[in-house]
Every structure is written in C-alpha cells, then in structure tokens.
Design brief:
It catalyses: L-threonylcarbamoyladenylate + adenosine(37) in tRNA = N(6)-L-threonylcarbamoyladenosine(37) in tRNA + AMP + H(+). This protein is an alpha/beta fold and 337 residues long. It is 45% helix and 18% strand. The strands form 2 sheets. The chain has a 5-stranded mixed beta sheet with strand order 3-2-1-4-5, with helices on both faces. The chain has a 5-stranded mixed beta sheet with strand order 8-7-6-9-10, with helices on both faces. β2 and β3 form a beta hairpin. It binds adenosine-5'-triphosphate, magnesium ion and fe (iii) ion. The site of fe (iii) ion has 5 residues, from α4. Adenosine-5'-triphosphate binds next to α4, α5 and α6.
Length: 337
C-alpha cells in the first residue's frame, strides 16, 4: 500500500512515498531556509510563492526516486493544518487535483500528528499506546497516543513554543536563524551551570509549559551585562538556557509517563533534534525503566514521510477526507475537521 505524503505547512516543500506506513521509498525535502534567513524568520507570502513554484517538481521527484508511477499510489496525504494558511493551501490544492485525476482517496493530515508519526518510520515495531513529547518551532505538547489516530493532550505551552524560545535566544546572541541547531552546537563548549536561569514548572500538578519567563530572564541578563560593560560568554549563556529548557521538558515528560502508567516514551518535532534533550531523556528513561524512542535528525524536522505515515494510519482507522477539505491554520492535535 503506497501513500504519497505532501508537506507545505511552513518553509519546507516536501513529498514522500511510504510503503505500508513505515518504509520510506523516497522523502524529497526542499528547504527555503536560505531564502528566509536574511529576514530572521519565515515570511509567509514568500513561503507560499516558493511552494507554488516548486511543488510539482518535488512530487515528481519523489515518485521517480521511489521507482513507481503516479497510478501506483493508493492514498494521497497532504498536511491540512496547523501552519501558514497560504502555504498549506498550496500542498492541499495540489493533492486534491491529484486525488481527482488519479481517482485515489485523499486524507488530510495534522502536521503535529505527523511529527509524532515520524517515530513509526524510525522504529518499525513501535505501536501505541505511548507518550510523546512534541517540541517544534510553533508547538510544545505532551501527548498520550492511545491508539493510531487517537490522541490525548496531557499538557501544552501557555506561551512560546520550545523551538521559538531557542530561535529568539539565538537571535539575541547574534547566532543566526534557525537558532536551535546553533545553540545546541555552541552549548557544547559552554558551562551549563554558569548562569542560574529560572525553571518554569508552573503549578505542582501541571503538565503545561511556559518559556516566556525564561526568555525574559535571558534577555534581561544580556541587557544587564551589556549595560555594565561586562563581556558575556555566549557558550555559557546558550548552555545554561538550554539546560533550563531541557530539565523542565524532560522531568514533565517522565512525570506524565508515570501518570499514564506507560513505559514507552517518544520524542518528536524539530527540537527533538537537540542533543542535550535526547541525552537527558535517554538517561531518565533508563533510570525509570522506560523504553525511549526518537526519530533521526532528518525525520525530526519537517518532511513528508512522517505525514504519509500519519495519513496511512488514519486511513486504516477508517478516516478519509472529501475534496472540499479546507486548510486549518490552528488545527489542534486529535481534532478531526
Ligand atoms: P511546527 O512543527 O510547530 O509547525 P516548524 O515545522 O516550523 O513548526 P519544525 O520544523 O518541527 O518546526 O522544527 C523547527 C524548530 O526546531 C526550530 O525552532 C529550530 O530552531 C528547532 N531545532 C532544530 N534543531 C534543533 C536543535 N538541535 N536544538 C534545538 N532546537 C532545534
Ligand atoms: Mg521549517
Ligand atoms: Fe513542523
């Protein structure tokens, strides 16, 4: 059973062919990072236009690389939310056209559920139920995956997403965009106990996150140092900031797994590429006897293979979309629209 995944929710144009929801035959990713870099973030209008220019090329490439024909496709799975509405519409419209002309079913995929599903590709025997910490550029969630296509949100961010915090701090440190990988890199040369930034655990029983307080604390620290003419060590700031984020994320994840009495813990989303976060969770999971799963770096950030995997399982659960399906920029995890 061949699923064609199509991803255009933000600044990656991607198409992939996935066999039986797990085996990647092709996963073509065109990143617009170099275009948006000079603006310090993604410019929605520019992103949409670039998707329009390149979408058919990327899909054709994915078909070719998989060694199949268009007519071999059994299911077409585009991302339909959350994301930038203009960007989403490009992939979704293209998929609708394909579904109509090939007479093959269409299934709209939730981008964040896609991130979670990257784990199915990486770990061929991973099956629900499991707990997943999803941390990406725009989202931070603790999710209980009860079954394929059945999600329960345990906690979420009340303000900034984890990736957003990484990107903003990197910008303040003058590191460039996107900031996550750059902070990850220089933090290795820093002392993570150099500066005592706050940990936002919120109320005792809460599984929610908040990163805006930490962000302000780091920015205040940088201002204070610059006003006093004290030279800062970027590596130490990056490492101390990263430790504060990672500690809270990892501890809440473990606590949620205990609450759900589940011994399988997974990581997903762009920030799942963070080496410090992987190490911390891997250590804690070992300590508590949990199995720990995370996708390869390429499957952590935006790609269409994860979208195809998610679409495949939703379809197998009996879901299908009509040709009138719309794009939903604020689509929630588990929401079926
Ligand atoms: P969303 O999935 O929420 O719609 P997005 O698709 O833009 O947002 P992703 O592609 O999932 O986000 O992830 C990109 C984010 O991951 C960026 O914020 C980036 O800084 C962050 N990121 C990537 N690598 C790392 C890393 N090694 N450490 C920390 N953050 C990272
Ligand atoms: Mg991106
Ligand atoms: Fe994403």
């Amino acid at each position: 059973f061949l699923t064609l995944g199509i991803e255009t929710s933000c600044d990656e144009t991607s198409a992939a062919v996935v066999l039986n929801g797990r085996e990647v035959l092709s996963n073509v990713i065109y990143s617009q990072i170099d275009i948006h870099k000079r603006f310090g973030g993604v410019v929605p209008e520019v992103a949409s236009r670039k998707h329009v220019e390149i979408i058919s090329l990327i899909v054709e490439e994915a078909i070719k690389e998989a060694g199949i024909k268009f007519s071999d496709i059994d299911l077409i799975a585009p991302t339909y939310g959350p994301g930038l509405v203009g960007a989403l519409l490009v992939g979704l419209s293209y998929a609708k056209g394909l579904s109509l002309s090939l007479k093959k079913p269409l299934i709209g995929v939730n981008h964040i559920e896609g991130h979670i599903s990257a784990n199915y590709i990486q770990h061929k025997y991973l099956e629900p139920p499991f707990l997943c910490l999803v941390v990406s550029g725009g989202h931070s969630h603790l999710v209980y995956i009860e079954d394929y296509d059945t999600y329960e949100i345990i906690g979420k961010t009340r303000d900034d997403a984890a990736g957003e915090a990484f990107d903003k701090i990197a910008r303040a440190l003058g590191l460039g965009y996107p900031g996550g990988p750059l902070i990850d890199k220089i933090a290795r040369q820093g002392n993570e106990d150099a500066i005592d930034f706050p940990r936002a655990y919120l109320e005792e029983e809460s599984f929610d996150f908040s990163f805006s307080g930490l962000k302000s604390a780091v920015l205040n620290y940088l201002n204070k140092m610059s006003m006093q003419g004290i030279e800062i060590k970027k590596e130490d700031v990056a490492a101390s900031f990263q430790k504060s984020v990672v500690e809270v994320l990892a501890n809440k994840t473990i606590r949620a797994a205990k609450l759900k009495k589940i011994n399988k813990v997974a990581l997903a989303g762009g920030v799942a590429a963070n080496s410090r976060l992987r190490d911390e969770l891997s250590l804690l999971c070992k300590k508590y006897g949990f199995e720990f799963y995370y996708p390869s770096i390429e499957l952590c950030t935006d790609n269409a293979a994860m979208i195809a995997a998610s679409g495949y399982y939703a379809y197998k659960k009996g879901r299908v979309s009509s040709l009138s399906i719309n794009a939903y920029p604020n689509l929630k995890i588990g929401e079926k629209l």
